[in-house]
Design brief:
2 copies of one chain form a homodimer. Chain A has 13 helices and 23 strands. By secondary structure, chain A is of the alpha+beta class. The two termini of chain A are 20 Å apart. At the A-B interface, strand 1, strand 2, helix 2, strand 3 and strand 4 of A face strand 1, strand 2, helix 2, strand 3 and strand 4 of B.
Chain lengths: 421, 421
């Protein structure tokens, strides 16, 4: 992509009303733009990151048998009244149409998915099945905060599983847990799995995937020696007390919840009459699980833990572009032309294997380098009069590793280990 | 994809409240499910079609320089008041949050995109640029009708262009017109370009892309000899009168509008103060165009014009699967095993190049064939005791072309011309 056509405009300063690291970095880098409190546009760069996260999630959800669909945001009041959540869910946006009918804006989709499933004839032979979507959700949060970590409009992946037996549900729950760990690893965020409340869903505990960072709004109590970790809301222990598992002293940390998996059991299926016919011919409510993950929040969390003083350092798999190619200016017209030609040739060649942002702008080296650091593609490649004299380019990983001067013809060989393809 | 895991459930009869061809076919085929009037879930099959349409549109938008982003659905009242459309747009869903702030649910995005663009420093050198998104829109239509042709919640691609000169805008308008024709061709719908009103946007005419079909809700006056075509609302002529262009007798036809392109000029940019600095150093409002296309409507229109008495006949590029592979049952257990083995081998092989729905269900030939016709993948491949005796399979295009018995090892060669890869 030519940078001059990419609708990228970076900012030297973040707006004063944004406090969080992710919001500052993403706003300055030209990734997002605020429309209202908790409501952001994903500008072209931000959109590319979202799409890459979407792809990682889709691959891992498909790998555990997930089948993708897309449910509506407009959800009739009557459906939400069946589970009592029209009255009890406090973040529900409610809307009345011109004809007086009332709708909730989808804050979550248990009611809709259970409604779809109960419309079918389901035998034990059809179970289990796993349905997921990636879609915009709406929640009227009293306080939207932390940039895209807690928005009023945000993008979420929600997976729902349906089983004939509790054993089967439990086994799948563990499988999804593993899939989640793969997703976060691929997206460059290190998580720990903390026990948390089952919420209004269940008496059973749920599991949260927590990214430790000072910018998080959750507090977790963790053991640094074993894997004991709980959300402070249910921990029953404080920092300094002994770990119930290994006796080590517990610590307290702030963290961002990037995913949460729940045991629903028959809470929704029994109330909404989503039954299947079991082996013995009797009708039973399906046993359900639900598994959430915020795409926009994951993008924010990835920014929150991968940056330096100059900007974001995107993890390879979710960077908006693999490479940022920068031709330098020269005062000598003939040399300028040679640099441009060599750069464009390389640009064409690299695009066969990589996504490349090509800085074709008429700007100073300083401005181009500052933008490259702020945008944060994993590798910067610079062609200048000096490098060209040795038929080379400078290849510099964004993660701080040393820059190398590499023969242009060898660049692709050089890139493989650097960006870990 | 294994059909037993694909969450596909076809219906013998369409619900009685659905009148339109597309709704009947898509509901029976298991593509969509109604949640409320004008609000549908895209079930896994429908979701696949949407994704394929999205891909075609993305390719063609990128080819005309479009840069993709994603704008919010929650849009502050104040923004809509700037253009006066908070009061004047009658299909706007309005919502009030817990703190009393009012929002519109995005029915269209001129206000938001113009708001984004005015926040930037734009010089004539930065122009033109072209921004698009594919996103859910909400319109409180008095009467939702015709299945997914006119929904209250639907998916739309909207492109906005920004120019320094009217000549440049005009040239781009023609370029988008050509891109639209490519998209509709690839999606298997034949369109004609009809002149229509500029709506509230402009005094200039707009252009609609109309698919002629009895199920359409628009009426167009067309000449069958030349390319004169106008929406009846502005035609100034009736069927039977002379074509103003060639003198031929005009006809009247029903049609579905699948796309509409508009001249916005400076209507939004002057009111909202989206200025650029021109060559002479003066500030001028940017000159705008907007270009809409309904993804869900295009899916409905494609179904509406590509079907027979047995179900949908999907155009190749937007079919949910390229191939439907069906192993037949046999009463002989050893033969049954041979059929399954040969089918699975072929399934693995075909997946290297095609998307394949594999009917692994324990069902009768009749049930499997009926489902295959209803679902409408472009090619059906059947392996039975009889075909296997000749190391062959039956290859049958869904479009009515004659079935062929083809050696299994030659199937890929055979498929190339059949499904026009």
């Amino acid at each position: 992509m030519l940078q001059s056509r990419a609708f990228i405009q970076t900012k030297k300063e973040a707006p004063k009303d944004e406090q969080s690291v992710n919001a500052k970095l993403l706003l300055r880098g030209g990734y997002i733009e605020k429309l209202a409190s908790g409501v952001y546009t994903f500008l072209p760069l931000g959109f590319l990151v979202l799409k890459r996260i979407e792809r990682v999630i889709r691959e891992e959800m498909d790998a555990v048998g997930g089948v993708e669909l897309l449910m509506p945001a407009l959800q009739p009041k009557e459906l939400w009244e069946e589970t009592g959540r029209w009255a009890s869910m406090d973040v529900l946006y409610k809307i009345k149409d011109a004809q007086g009918r009332e709708f909730a804006l989808g804050a979550t989709h248990e009611e809709v998915i259970t409604g779809i499933v109960r419309n079918r004839t389901v035998s034990y032979k059809d179970l289990p099945f796993y349905l997921y979507q990636m879609q915009t959700k709406f929640r009227d949060e009293l306080r939207a905060k932390s940039g895209i970590l807690r928005g009023r409009e945000f993008i979420m992946k929600d997976l729902y599983s349906f089983h004939a037996t509790e054993e089967d549900r439990k086994a799948y729950y563990e499988k999804v847990k593993e899939a989640y760990l793969k997703i976060f690893k691929r997206c460059g965020v290190s998580v720990l799995v903390a026990e948390a409340s089952g919420g209004s869903f269940s008496k059973e505990i749920s599991h949260e995937f927590q990214v430790r960072t000072p910018g998080g709004e959750d507090i977790i109590i963790v053991c640094s020696r074993c894997d004991w970790a709980k959300n402070s809301e249910i921990a029953g222990k404080r920092a300094g007390e002994q770990c119930p598992s290994c006796g080590n002293a517990l610590g307290e940390e702030r963290s961002i919840e990037v995913g949460n998996i729940f045991t629903l059991g028959t809470k929704f299926s029994s109330v909404m009459k989503a039954f299947f016919t079991d082996k013995d011919g009797t009708e039973k409510p399906m046993i359900m699980g639900c598994y959430g993950m915020g795409l926009s929040r994951l993008m924010g969390a990835a920014a929150e833990v991968n940056y330096d003083e100059r900007g974001i350092v995107w993890p390879r798999e979710i960077a908006p572009y693999d490479l940022h190619l920068i031709p330098m200016q020269s005062k000598d017209a003939a040399m300028q032309k040679r640099i441009a030609q060599a750069s464009e040739q390389l640009y064409q060649k690299l695009q066969e294997r990589y996504t490349v942002l090509y800085d074709d702008r008429d700007a100073s080296a300083g401005a181009k380098f500052a933008d490259a650091d702020l945008i944060g593609a994993p590798v910067r490649i610079v062609i200048s009069e000096k490098t060209l004299a040795a038929e080379s380019a400078e290849v510099k990983p964004r993660n701080g590793a040393t820059a190398k001067i590499v023969k242009i013809k060898d660049i692709e060989k050089e890139l493989c280990p650097v960006i870990q393809l």
